[in-house]
């Protein structure tokens, strides 16, 4: 090989070596950048920032001792047990008691000393705080406090989503809501097979008075708008539920044209005896066809939430599929 060829070969060898070296360095840099991004993406969040009734707030994640008075249903949907449960004296949300029976009571006005005694690390309140003994600032001194917006307060699905974000349990929230939708779809099919397009109505009998569920009152909304059960013209004429729930007279009940009627009443309720002795009541289609059903526990029917709706749907399924 002559001298010129040797020089050319040496030059090209050096150039190839430099190119390979630069490529290797570039790959290492890319790998390092990628690892840095991966490390950054895998950093565990320690707080969450959400809109609330009090504006945008930042709440630390990792809370374990939680108070969410009257909205324990949403916590239970995530598999979380609160440190205290809503109560008005001896009155409770009895449909939740199978999971909350060992949880101490917290008076509905949220006395500050009671709240403090439970040592919460997260307090979740409704948007309307007029019934609470303390103000937002008072509860915030005890623990990080989140005040739900009006939309969230009135929508149990939204509550599960928001509670999931507050607790870093978004996946659990999605699974809970998805599972409920599956239950509703299955119940709809079973009840369609059981009663077809026959109509149902529900009446809460308490203190000798009769409260008929409108199509959107409490858990009746789950039966009508979600499961797809049909309501009679009597329910249609009642219109939408209002904050004040007025009783229906016995004479008015004579117009109840439902094929199936659920009576929700405690054992020994005087109103049931009134119905049994009434020729007016005995004249309605459901009574004539022996399709009036007594249920002693009205708690799930008179509330809204995943557990409330599920138990109400299950009660209807168990009754009408017999």
Automatic annotation (TrEMBL):
It is found in: Cell membrane. Keywords: Signal, Transport. Its main location: membrane. It comes from the Bacteria. One of its GO terms (biological process) is iron coordination entity transport. Residues 1-23 form the signal peptide. Residues 34-48 have a biased composition (Basic and acidic residues). It is a lipid-anchor. This is Ferrichrome ABC transporter substrate-binding protein.
């Amino acid at each position: 090989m002559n001298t010129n060829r040797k020089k050319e070969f040496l030059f090209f060898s050096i150039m190839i070596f430099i190119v390979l070296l630069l490529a290797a360095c570039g790959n290492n840099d890319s790998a390092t950048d990628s690892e840095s991004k991966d490390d950054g993406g895998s950093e565990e969040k320690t707080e969450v920032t959400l809109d609330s009734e009090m504006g945008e707030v930042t709440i630390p994640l990792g809370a374990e001792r939680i108070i969410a008075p009257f909205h324990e249903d949403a916590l239970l949907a995530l598999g979380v047990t609160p440190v205290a449960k809503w109560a008005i004296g001896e009155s409770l949300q009895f449909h939740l008691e199978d999971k909350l029976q060992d949880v101490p009571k917290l008076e509905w006005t949220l006395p500050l000393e009671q709240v403090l005694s439970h040592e919460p690390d997260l307090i979740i309140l409704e948007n309307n705080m007029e019934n609470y003994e303390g103000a937002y600032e008072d509860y915030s001194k005890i623990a990080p406090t989140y005040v739900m917006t009006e939309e969230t307060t009135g929508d149990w699905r939204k509550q599960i989503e928001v509670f999931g974000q507050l607790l870093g349990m978004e996946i659990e929230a999605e699974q809970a809501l998805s599972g409920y939708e599956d239950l509703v779809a299955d119940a709809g099919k079973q009840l369609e097979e059981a009663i077809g397009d026959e109509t149902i109505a529900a009446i809460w009998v308490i203190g000798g008075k009769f409260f008929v569920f409108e199509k959107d009152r409490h858990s009746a909304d789950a039966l009508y708008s979600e499961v797809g059960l049909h309501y009679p013209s009597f329910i249609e004429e009642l219109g939408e539920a209002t904050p004040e729930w007025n009783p229906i007279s016995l004479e008015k009940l004579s117009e109840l044209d439902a094929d199936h009627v659920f009576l929700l009443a405690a054992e020994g309720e005087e109103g049931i005896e009134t119905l049994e002795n009434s020729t007016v009541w005995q004249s309605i289609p459901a009574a004539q066809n022996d399709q009036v059903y007594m249920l002693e526990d009205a708690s799930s029917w008179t509330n809204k939430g995943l557990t409330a709706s599920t138990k109400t749907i299950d009660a209807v399924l168990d009754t009408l599929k017999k």
